[in-house]
């Protein structure tokens, strides 16, 4: 009769068992005559299917093809039942006539909701968007009104196909009628997994608490122009591959599979194999002693040399790229008392780099030690990390980069943003607000960017976080996670520093078998001094990823040798500036407990030399 859908909130209706004919309960029970209707008091309204009813003793006709306009909602009707006053020629369709009967008890609100008389354009309390059409409102709470489509949102939603070609989820999502701020804060202020925008506390959303998966209702239900009407894709979206493999034969696909694989290794493997020398002297290695090749287990056993193994507390770091040496071949100083070692590929580093993308005006020269600071420690101009390994530098401009950043590729792909090419990119001041998708920190340094999706990664987040790691705290490999882990019911805490892990805004390492997690900064293959890394630094990468600690030096004004180490809590205060030494680069005497910041000793040395 009213030609409207029968929804769940109508509770009961009439239906014919023999044919597909159904009636709302209030339509089936419509009286033939209504007396003193609030929209037309004083005259009787008679049920009709015509606009002009001249005979008060009207008998229903099966079909009357007439068009008329409702005097309440002003909608043109055809073959539509109405209530008509033959005195005033007043006609009202049965929808407007029965609005007082069209009510619902919705679980989102404690009071009964009633349908508005007219179709309207206004904002919906549920989703916050402005819509045109049918609304229900609370007669007690004047501010509460929701669009019909939001009234009909399913309580459970299973995303089996990609929404907007950008996301899917394997678990059933549950409709939630609010996101209280206390809960938002406890969940690290999550963002919608589809549009990456935040949530308003009082708006409805779909959620999977097992995975901390949250989406706006309009994002999760693919709604476009006509609310929940057209399920069409505007474009090919984020899952569409936007490059051809043949155009990028040496494309780096990040993250690297394991920690022992790195950028230089990839670069020189693609260059092809070169003859390996059994022994290297002077000029090629920039080391005062000859270097001996270790290329077999026998050679390791013969010289009692162990490969890098953090589980066994064995450290073997390359003096060129400052990366762990976990496999043969490599070179080591022939002098037993000298711990200078190099990856085989680090002996093949070119002496010059011309037209470097970040410093094209001058040629960069390979330097075994940057002449910028005490002990050759410098801050890389590209990644911003401190380094005491080999460098490529320009003396004229005092520009120095570590050897890994000397070979940054023009483009990469990353599993966190599959199928789209990420181009090397340096943000402008205006673009710093975007932030890295791995750590949500802004930077002015070079990174990798997908312009079509506004997806940005720091170069170190893209290139220095391997896909899987092994750690002594877990017998299984830990995988790099870009989002909260599925079926993880509890909160996330780092197994190393014991601080809470934010799975929404920061990548982390996770073992699904043991439900254990680690901050990316707490879990490098390199040995760390104590379990306090992340709590003292919000950097997503271990702060001293490019620094080799452990060597001993003779310094002025102290009778003993000192070791170059990372400070711990027990080291106390600096002998010069009297501030804490923990988590800083320090020079430490193990005989008399003398300890000083690396920077303080350097400044003191400069001051003494000038007086």
Automatic annotation (TrEMBL):
GO terms for molecular function: zinc ion binding. It comes from the Eukaryota. Transmembrane segments: none annotated. It holds the Pfam family C1_2. This is Phorbol-ester/DAG-type domain-containing protein. InterPro entries: C1-like_sf, DC1, PKC_DAG/PE, Vacuole_Formation_Reg, Znf_PHD. Keywords: Metal-binding, Repeat, Zinc, Zinc-finger. SUPFAM superfamilies: Cysteine-rich domain. Residues 470-529 form the Phorbol-ester/DAG-type domain.
